Amino acid sequence: MTYDYRCSCGNTFEDYKRIEDRHYSKCPKCGxxxxxxxxxxxxxxxxxxxxxxxxxxxxPVLLESRKQKQRMLREQGLxxx
Length: 81
Ligand SMILES: [Zn+2]
Description:
By secondary structure, the chain is an alpha+beta fold. 12% of the residues lie in helices and 30% in strands.
């Protein structure tokens, strides 16, 4: 599942998590712990492109779609994170 997070630095992002790990994620901007935003009313979820500093093998990668992110996670062997 993909969940939304908001960090204390003001950054909002989404991350792919197992359901038991969904409450918190690491902010891709500052690296602090970010809380999940619960948004059950949003019927259509629009992916916001962002630079992910943790997903790439050689540094930040611009993620432009959820599919691209999931492919990158698979390539890095991070699908289960
Ligand atoms: Zn942050």
